[in-house]
Amino acid sequence: MNKQEKQAPTSSAWKAVGLVGAIGIDLAVFTLVGFLFGRWMDEKMGGSGLWVGLGVLIGLVLGAIGIYVLVRKVLEGSNE
Predict the structure, then answer these.
(1) pLDDT tens for residues 19-76?
(2) CB count in 10 Å sphere of residue 34
(3) 70 near 23, Cβ under 8 Å?
(4) Do residues 27 and 60 lie in contact, with contact meaning Cβ atoms separated by under 8 Å?
(5) Residue 68: exposure state from Cβ atoms within 10 A (0-12, 13-18, ≥19)
(6) What secondary structure, in 3-state letters, does the chain show?
(7) Which of 53, 57, 30, 31 is nearest to 42 (CA)?
(8) Residue 39's closest CA among 59, 24, 21?
(9) How many angstroms separate the CA atoms of 51 and 44, rounded?
């Protein structure tokens, strides 16, 4: 057994941990930015919270798209 075969399970485990962490951070950041943007718009427009809800929804959608792109890049880079 060569050195690369020994390192493969550990390497893939850390890759998976990194991917899960990146997914969580990505979704949290996009949602937070959407919330902050919605709150700012609510203050400017004098709304009743509609902009906050829309900002969070837009943040979630953009976060999901970001996650899709991230997972796709990781899967393209794997040899499995």
Answers:
(1) 899 999 999 999 999 999 999 999 998 878 899 999 999 999 999 999 999 989 888 8
(2) 22
(3) yes
(4) yes
(5) exposed
(6) CCHHHHHHHHHHHHHHHHHHHHHHHHHHHHHHHHHHHHHHHHHHHCCCCHHHHHHHHHHHHHHHHHHHHHHHHHHHHCCC
(7) 53
(8) 59
(9) 10
Which residue is it, tokens 């941990």?
17
Q: What's the token pair of residue 2?
A: 């060569």
CB-CB contact of 67 with 21 (8 Å): no
Whole-model pTM: value is 0.75
User: Token pair 């996009």 is at which residue?
Assistant: 30
